[in-house]
Amino acid sequence: MDRAAFDTFVRTQGPDLYRYAFWLCGDAASAEDLVQEACLRAWRSRDALRTERAARGWVITIVRREFLRRLGRPHEVLVPVDVATEGPEPAEVLALREAVGALDPMYREPLVLQIVWGFSAKEIAELLELTPQAVMTRTFRARLQLRQVLGRHHGRSA
User: Fold this and answer.
1) Are residues 77 and 121 in the same domain?
2) Are residues 74 and 4 both part of a single domain?
3) What angle do CA 34, 102, 62 make, to 5 degrees?
4) Against a cut of 0.90, is the pTM above it?
């Protein structure tokens, strides 16, 4: 991947990378650091990248691994995931964001990769080092939990 292609990649994928990093750590500054580190590592190994699609999966894997690596640092305190919002949003959107943010990370992460990034179960399995069946089970359970929470939010039983 040449410099122009890499610059285009960062410009187009940067906001999604940031959103994913924020979903992981819940902190704007940490999310920016994660994305910056991922882009730096991608830049250093850009010759190995052939397509933007391959780069996308690879960089998101770097973001996730850097996040997990940082979890082991005792001096760094990460806050619980709470989705950032810009400006007023309808109550339903805020409720959905809260519900997704409250999911256990083992369910939230594959769901976000599927919904926000549009990755297939096979691609998510590769990124998270799971089987495609485990990914499908986790996204199914995440959706069930969301239905239950959102049903209660709207005064309905699930």
Assistant:
1) no
2) yes
3) 20
4) no
